[in-house]
Structures are given as C-alpha cells and as structure tokens.
Amino acid sequence: MATGIELKLIEAFRAENQRNQELVDFLMTEIVPRYDEFDAGHDRQHALYVMTQSLHLAQFYPEVDRAMLLTAAAYHDVGLVNGREHHHADSAAMLRADTRLQRWFTTEQVEVMAQAAYDHRASAKGEPVTIYGRIVAEADRQIEVETVIRRTIQFGMKKYPTLSKDESYERTVEHLREKYGEGGYLKLWIPESDNAARMKELREVIANEEKLRAVFNRLYDQLIGGA
Q1: Residue 117 pLDDT exceeds 60
Q2: Which of 115, 141, 167 is the last residue of a domain?
Q3: Are residues 101 and 151 in the same domain?
Q4: How many independent structural domains does the chain possess?
Q5: Same domain, 74 and 166
Q6: What percent of the chain has pLDDT over 90?
Q7: In a shared domain, residues 213 and 155
Q8: Which domain holds residue 213?
Q9: Is the pLDDT of residue 12 over 60?
Q10: Which of 33, 56, 122, 168 has a 20 to 30 Å separation from 209 between CA atoms?
Q11: Same domain, 106 and 200
C-alpha cells in the first residue's frame, strides 16, 4: 500500500517545476483513477505504490528521467481493462497510443515508456530491455508476506469462485511456490531494492506449512467476512 509518507515523493517531484506539476496532475486525474475498476490487488493503491517505489529506486540511477519513469509506472497495469492475460502488451499499446503524452515527451521517449510497461510482468521470460523496465518491474513486485498471500487469495476467489476453502488453500500454495519459491519464475532486477530480504522472509513462510496455513486462514476469513 502507498502510504502518506511515500506519496510525499510524488508531491516533491510535482513541486520541482511547472512541467512536473502538469504531468503529475494529468496522471493523478486521468490515469490513476482507471485502477478503481480493477481487482483489489491492482487497485489505485497498487498503482500509487508502484509509482512511489519507482521514484524511490530512481535515486540510485541519476541517468533516469523521473518523469518518464513515473509515467511508465502509472500506465503499467491499465491494460487490465481488457483482461489479465495480455495486460502488459495492452498497457504498452495504450500508453503508446495516448497522444496527450506528446505534451511532455518525444516519440522516442514514449516508446521507451511503453517498453517499460510491457516489460513489467513478473512472468516475462527475459530481462527488461531498459533500466526503466527494470525499475518498474522491481517496484511492481511489492513483496510483503501478507500482501502477496492476500492478493493470491483474492485472485483465486475472482477467477475460481466455486473453490472451497481447502481448494483455495491448495491453489494458493501452488501459486506461491511456482512464483516466489526457490527457482520460481519471479525475478528481481534492482540490487538496491529491499525486495531480496522480503523474498527471503516470504520463502520462509512458504516453507513453513503450519505458519502459511495460519496466515492463509486469517486472511481468507477476513476476505470472506468483508473485513
């Protein structure tokens, strides 16, 4: 979740000059609200989290244009409006086609941002093409034990609504091991990120069946109860 402290990064960027102010106002009023249509794991708070984390990681890469990075982060999941399977490609296409961005960026810059949106997907086979893609992908990982497990349960509830609680648990464990376990397909790209330490913590929970089941039960019951 993006906190008030994290959002100060966006406000500080916005305050630097008129161009930034106009761009941030556009992103916050025209792009971020689109996430209100998506599932709880990809809602407005997720978009803001990826945007602020991207700005945070940019401090380690002074060559990066932060306006481009913030924009790529804002658009990274907008393609979910067409479904999850090809959302990375749809996000890139939607960014590329948004002529309003010509107010702030060249055609070449728009293409770099579109590629970053395309490359963010965790299941991508190869490494992101540019540093922009690597930063947005890293920011999107959002590795925090309860956040990851909750999002996995929420996705299962939406896609497989007839599953029993035990079946949901089995699906959750299978997904967690496939994506986050040792040898899982999720890759980390930015060594300055704290995701590596968080990944270790998550893997310890995944490996501890008793603890994993306890976390699952609590979160599942909260979601079923509407908490």
Answers
A1: yes
A2: 141
A3: no
A4: 2
A5: no
A6: 84
A7: yes
A8: 145-224
A9: yes
A10: 122
A11: no
Tokens of 192: 């300055």
Residue 158: what pLDDT?
87
Question: Which residues does 204 contact at the CB level (< 8 Å), separation at least 6?
Answer: none
Asked if residues 188 and 199 have their Cβ atoms less than 8 Å apart, the reply is yes
Q: Which of 72, 107, 141 is the C-terminal boundary of a domain?
A: 141
Q: Per residue, what are the HEC states of the chain?
A: CCCHHHHHHHHHHHCCCHHHHHHHHHHHHHHHHHHHHCCHHHCHHHHHHHHHHHHHHHCCCCCCCHHHHHHHHHHCCHHHHHCCCCHHHHHHHHHHHCHHHHHCCCHHHHHHHHHHHHHCCCCCCCCCCCHHHHHHHHHHHCCCHHHHHHHHHHHHHHHCCCCCHHHHHHHHHHHHHHHHCCCCCCCCCCCCCCHHHHHHHHHHHHHCHHHHHHHHHHHHHHHHCCC
Condensed to tens digits (0 to 9), the pLDDT of residues 72-88 reads 999 999 999 999 889 99
